[in-house]
Structure formats: structure tokens, C-alpha cells
Backbone:
């Protein structure tokens, strides 16, 4: 009587079982990431009102650049009211600047031009400048900016970011 050891068959079985488990695990992880891509999370966007200063001290016709928690904006007062624009060009994200003699926002990267309402009027930018909502409360101006989850920009305990007035430094 001879005992038959079929080690090669057992090794092959274990090898294929481990490979099948790995392939199944990899496909499952890939399918999970794909489902997360198809169905994004339903977290509501959170906005924070940031105090930018007194309305009476905003200069007429001269936009003021500001950096509010990483959001680079320009606040412009015109006859139509006060508006806040993102300084990021909608073409490649370069920072736009104000041309006082032309009365327009100009992107230095590809000569994109925006009028004082933020509308793209020349160059390659595909859409107008992004706008931020400006809110007046008791003569003070606030800009609503979208807060990032990983950002920790608020003052301790208050949960609010308050910008220093640009005219006082």
C-alpha cells in the first residue's frame, strides 16, 4: 500500500485560491470607489459670513484685493452696488488684476478681459468670474465664502473668520 501525496495539486489549489481572493478583493475595492464616484456624498455646502469692513469706507470704482481664508477676492463698489469677485481667472486660474485706465479685470496669462460686472468680454476665459455673495448688516459688509472641511481658519471658540479691514492694515 502506497500513500499518495498530491502536494503539487494542493499547492496549486492554495496558490489559485489566494490569487482568486486577491483578485476578488481588488475588484471589490475598485467597484466601491466607482460607486463613490457615481454617487457623491450628500454633504451640504457650508458657507461662512466673513466680515470685510464698513460699507461707507469702500472706495468707489477701485477694487480692493483680499485674501479670506485662502479665497482670493476683489471687492468692487460701483453705481450698481458692491460686488465681490474671485481673483481666479476662469481659464487657467491665474490671478486677475484691475486695470484702472480700462476699468476692467485683466488676466496676465492669456490676456483674458472681464468687465466690471465680471463678465468675460475678451480672450479665452470660458465664463464670467466667480462671484461671492455680499451681505450688508448694520453698515458692515460680509462676504459668504464656502468653507473647506479640512480648513481650520476660524478664531478659537467662535467658529467665525473675521477679516481685518483692508484700509486699516
Residues:
Amino acid at each position: 500500500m502506497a500513500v499518495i501525496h498530491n502536494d503539487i495539486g494542493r499547492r496549486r489549489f492554495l496558490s489559485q485560491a489566494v490569487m482568486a481572493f486577491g483578485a476578488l478583493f481588488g475588484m471589490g475595492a475598485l467597484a466601491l470607489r466607482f460607486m463613490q464616484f457615481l454617487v457623491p456624498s450628500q454633504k451640504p455646502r457650508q458657507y461662512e459670513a466673513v466680515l470685510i469692513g464698513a460699507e461707507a469706507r469702500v472706495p468707489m470704482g477701485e477694487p480692493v484685493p483680499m485674501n479670506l481664508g485662502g479665497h482670493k477676492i476683489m471687492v468692487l463698489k460701483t453705481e450698481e452696488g458692491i460686488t465681490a469677485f474671485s481673483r481666479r481667472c476662469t481659464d487657467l486660474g491665474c490671478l486677475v488684476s484691475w486695470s484702472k485706465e480700462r476699468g476692467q479685470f485683466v488676466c496676465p496669462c492669456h490676456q483674458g478681459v472681464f468687465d466690471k460686472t465680471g463678465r468675460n468680454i475678451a480672450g479665452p476665459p470660458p465664463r464670467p468670474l466667480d462671484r461671492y455673495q455680499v451681505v450688508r448688516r448694520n453698515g458692515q459688509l460680509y462676504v459668504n465664502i464656502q468653507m473647506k472641511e479640512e480648513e481650520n481658519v476660524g478664531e478659537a471658540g467662535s467658529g467665525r473668520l473675521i477679516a481685518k479691514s483692508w484700509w486699516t492694515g
In short: The longest strand covers residues 47-54. The two ends are 98 Å apart (CA to CA). The first helix runs from residue 7 to 38. Residues 75 and 84 are 4 Å apart (CA to CA).
